[in-house]
UniProtKB/TrEMBL annotation:
It is found in: Membrane. Residues 259-443 form the Bacterial sugar transferase domain. It is a multi-pass membrane protein. The keyword Nucleus does not apply. Keywords: Membrane, Transferase, Transmembrane, Transmembrane helix. The chain crosses the membrane at residues 12-33, 39-58, 78-98, 104-123, 264-286. Pfam families: Bac_transf, CoA_binding_3. This is Sugar transferase. Belongs to the bacterial sugar transferase family. GO terms for molecular function: phosphotransferase activity, for other substituted phosphate groups. One of its GO terms (cellular component) is membrane. It comes from Flavobacterium enshiense DK69.
Length: 450
């Protein structure tokens, strides 16, 4: 498994936020004179700019986004930002000279727009000239939309899609689909586009299962934009409708930023408010009972299947099978102190450092040790879908009775179902509910907390 290529937005969008905020605040100092001494005003324009941007999707610009759509976002941002500036300056500062406000907002938006459009066109040029920032794709089917999309990819290299192969389904459909799966795996293809008119429901399910289990992006080509049974998202490549199968709220930059800000704030509270005094106490007790380090480090799989070091307070005596075998009930490896901190979930607290550095989130699918991930990926359907989001210290499955040891197939299958529900229905309120239930269960005590 590997991280998908061409995902520059993870770095570009935070940079765009910072640059735009810098522009509007610096211009406020030079163009609005009296207001330049008002620190509250700088806070207001920064917050209002971001809120407006989230509501008009100002930063939601993708490789297939048309320039006219970007101009539409700019116009909405300009109008709303102008209205809020008039309201604030006129009401709070008795400073509402229309010409100054319009001059400030217009110059700010023009400068930001120039940067935004320059990056947009420079990226297009970069893809054409250097062949960088691209995603490899295959198309499968025979319909008219297949040839249209094929021509689109070949005629528009500036969009950053490299069409590697088209699989025709004129004959031996089953073997052609299998050949497609093998090709996608061997050539490390990023995205698969399927013509729905050429596939049965059974074929669609095969593609869904394959892409879910192998962390590939699956999109469909509908004919006449037919209404589908699932709630799918439509995008347009030129004038060709393309359907995205799975909608993940945390793919949106705004939601990702909200969750990351919450993770940082919550982890800092725990680190300074709890771990700062609890760590020395637990370190003394752990070291007193058995030799070995205070912290236990284990390789686990996170976002996009990447491995990272997951930290815990050591609850077992050092042993050679710690990375291979899960803890079971009455496990002789667990120390007396370890049994207590596992029962109360205190052994998990060092993972807030994982959250702070960005390997984990406070809430998300629980990460498994690498050896178990490889095993479950082969035997449990859709297990790999969990890796589309960051793993968490706690999760929806854990608050519904599926924490700790996996005793049978039912445990891991239901855990995966809860994890997929979580990533498809994420909200900050759901995170808060899960955190509350985790604390409540820890205080009440759980049967599988051992």
């Amino acid at each position: 498994m590997r991280k998908q290529t061409g995902r520059y937005s993870g770095y570009l969008r935070p940079f765009s936020y910072l640059l735009d905020l810098m522009i509007i605040n610096v211009l406020a100092v030079f163009l609005l004179l009296a207001s330049s001494t008002e620190y509250y005003y700088h806070g207001f324009i920064s917050v209002s700019w971001i809120i407006i941007a989230w509501n008009v999707d100002f930063y939601e610009v993708y490789r297939y986004t048309k320039a006219i759509e970007i101009l539409g976002k700019i116009l909405k941002q300009y109008l709303l930002f102008t209205v809020l500036n008039f309201a604030y300056l006129g009401f709070f500062l008795d400073f509402a000279i229309p010409s100054q406000i319009i001059k400030y907002v217009t110059l700010s938006v023009l400068l930001i727009s120039a940067v935004k459009l320059s990056i947009y066109y420079l990226l297009k040029e970069f893809r054409v000239v250097y062949g960088g920032n691209f995603r490899t794709v295959v198309i499968i089917g025979n319909s008219k939309s297949v040839s249209q999309l094929s021509d689109f990819f070949n005629d528009n290299p500036d969009y950053g899609y490299k069409l590697v192969k088209v699989f025709n389904l004129d004959h031996e459909k089953k073997s052609q689909i299998e050949s497609c799966f093998d090709f996608v795996q061997n050539d490390k293809i990023d995205e698969i586009y399927c013509s729905l008119s050429d596939l049965t429901n059974e074929d669609v399910n095969r593609f869904v299962d394959f892409t879910d289990n192998n962390l590939k992006v699956l999109k469909f080509l509908p004919d006449n934009k037919e209404i589908l049974s699932r709630n799918m998202k439509f995008d347009y490549y030129g004038y060709i409708p393309v359907v995205s199968l799975r909608h993940i709220p945390l793919d949106k930059t705004a939601n990702k930023a909200i969750k990351r800000a919450f993770d940082i704030l919550f982890s800092l509270i725990v680190i300074f408010g709890v771990l700062s005094w609890l760590t020395p106490i637990l370190a003394f007790l752990i070291k007193k009972e058995s030799k070995g380090p205070v912290f236990f480090k284990q390789r686990r799989n996170g976002l996009n299947y990447h491995e990272f070091d997951c930290y815990k307070f050591r609850s077992m005596r050092p042993n050679e099978i710690a990375d291979l075998e899960q803890v079971s009930k009455n496990d002789p490896r667990i120390t007396k102190v370890g049994r207590f901190i596992r029962k109360t979930s205190m052994d998990e607290l060092p993972q807030f450092f994982n959250v702070l550095i960005g390997d984990m989130s406070v809430v998300g699918p629980r990460p498994h040790m690498v050896s178990h991930t490889e095993m479950y990926a082969k035997s449990v359907d859709k297990f790999m879908v969990r890796h589309f989001v960051k793993p968490g210290i706690t999760g929806l499955a854990q608050t519904n009775g599926y924490r700790g040891e996996v005793e049978n197939n039912k445990d891991i299958i239901n855990r995966v179902k809860y994890d997929i529900f979580y990533l498809e229905n994420w909200s900050l309120l759901l995170d808060l509910k899960i955190i509350f239930m985790t604390v409540y269960n820890a205080i009440r005590g759980e049967e599988k907390a051992y």
